[in-house]
Amino acid sequence: MVNVLLPLNARPSKVFASHDSEPGGALSDNELLEAIADGDRSAFSILMKRYLASMVTLAQRIVFDREQAREIAQEAFLRVWQNAIKWDPYGSATFLTWLRLVVVNLSISRRRRHREQVSLDVIEELPSGLADSFDHIASSERKRLVGEALEKLSERQRAAVALYYFEDLPQIEAAKIMKMTPRAFDSLIVRTRASLKKHLIGLGLGHKEDLS
Questions:
Q1: pLDDT, tens digit (0-9, with 9 covering 90-100), for 23-67
Q2: DSSP 163
Q3: Which CATH class name applies to 23-120?
Q4: CATH 1.10.10.10 residue ranges in the chain?
Q5: Is residue 211 pLDDT above 50, yes or no?
Q6: For the chain, what is the total number of helices (H) and then of strands (E)?
Q7: What is the location of CATH 1.10.1740.10 in the chain?
Q8: H-run or E-run covering 45
Q9: Topology of the domain covering 123-212
Q10: Alpha carbon distances (Å) from 86 to 33, 35, 183
């Protein structure tokens, strides 16, 4: 669990006191944010438990480093605490969309600052939809080569892959997170797939006709 250091004036929960095993767990994100804005640590803890693991995973798929991903998730949730009072529950974006946007932006920024070599051990096998397009990545050697190909992508291309293929978000939602129009995002995905194909072919993984 990532430990986010909260201000000393953060107060214990009164709103979430109950006899349930997970008090407050059934409350919506907006309800939790309202309580967080009032300094409620229990509400913050519930929101972290709800989304922390998935945000670490999202960050890791962009920066390719588990520890950096944990730090990014921690910073993102610290911003949740700091900005909860400004949250508009009637705005155009859901909390999860906003949180993903923060994590993607932090990940891209971190990646651009730290371009050192990273271990390919953290690369996960591509999801079935994309794997099918690349001759069903299966062996550990192919997994390593795919990792190298992903490593060669730009930060924005890697973020697009993480959102669209790994997070399995609709194109419109992924485009919103990356602050792009759906058409621009679609163009980015097309360019990203072309880059992956080129890198994979260069690494000896399949033939051009196999990667369509």
A1: 556 899 999 999 999 999 999 999 999 999 999 999 999 988 899
A2: I
A3: mainly alpha
A4: 123-212
A5: no
A6: 9, 0
A7: 23-120
A8: helix 41-63
A9: Arc Repressor Mutant, subunit A (1.10.10)
A10: 10, 12, 31
